[in-house]
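Not sure how to ask, but would you mind making up any protein sequence you like and the tokens describing how it folds?
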Amino acid sequence: MDLTDIPDDVYGGEESPPEFDELKSPDTLLRDGPIRERLLDVVVGLRTPTKVSTIAKRADCGTETARDYLEWFDEMGMVHRHTGRPVRYERNDSYFQWRRIDQIREEYSEQEIVDALDDTITQIEDYRAQFDVTHPDKVSLVDATREQNLSTEAAWEALSEWETLEQRAALLDAARRNNSVAGSKPGPVDA
């Protein structure tokens, strides 16, 4: 018997298939979640200053409820509040970067961070050699398709991966430096 085969005696034959029409749609599941989580999902996606009413609409909640949570998110440093009429909020990238660095420090030993950084730097160096520039922003997608004999999609994917590696290296290096952050515990050190 193959490991992927299902034995004949697994099903009693009396079971009916699931009623797919009775299952909740993904949209309903997202709308029915806790308001705080829905607002947090919206906040994470804010790239430009956005009105409270727009944020509330995206999170499917009341404007005053959104305003209360956004004030709380502002106090925590998760968002920037832009005063004026109307008040607008946008995501604080520094907060989310700090959180990611703190998570890396908590989840990985110093040696694991150094090893991941070494691997990332090696991959970056490979891209630098391939494209003969120091950063993906200096590469023309048009030139890359011609010079590298790549499809536009393949060149774009390579440059996107390179950009991601650059961001990963910056995060890993910040975690490696282990700058003390208020509220974070020191990570294990493997010598």
In short: The longest helix spans residues 152-177. Residues 75 and 81 are 10 Å apart (CA to CA). The helical segments are 26-31, 35-44, 52-59, 63-76, 93-107, 110-131, 141-147, 152-177.
